[in-house]
Amino acid sequence: MRALLWLVGLALLLTGCASEKGIIDKEGYQLDTRHRAQAAYPRIKVLVIHYTAENFDVSLATLTGRNVSSHYLIPATPPLYGINTDPQ
């Protein structure tokens, strides 16, 4: 019995350390974290919102490239794309 409780406790501990990948569905919005920026820096100091004239695919390729660091891509329809986020 003691060994079983130990194994259950260990399984819960390891499950708590697992990071969530993919689409995170929060109340009212969805966040897709499958695309990561190569120039990612996790600490957000400033939030800048600007319009990109490119279509979604080109914008995603640009914002996940080596020369930029963007935290979110917000398309016309959900989900939002968290490309430099740590879903904690």
TrEMBL record:
Protein keywords: Signal
Q: Which GO terms describe its molecular function?
A: N-acetylmuramoyl-L-alanine amidase activity
One GO-annotated biological process of the protein? peptidoglycan catabolic process
Q: Which residues form the signal peptide?
A: 1-20
Extract the PROSITE patterns matched here: PROKAR_LIPOPROTEIN
InterPro entries attached here?
A: Amidase/PGRP_sf (IPR036505)
Q: Which SUPFAM superfamilies match?
A: N-acetylmuramoyl-L-alanine amidase-like
The name under which this protein is listed is N-acetylmuramoyl-L-alanine amidase
The species this protein belongs to is Salmonella enterica subsp. enterica serovar Rubislaw str. A4-653
Give the lineage. Bacteria, Pseudomonadati, Pseudomonadota, Gammaproteobacteria, Enterobacterales
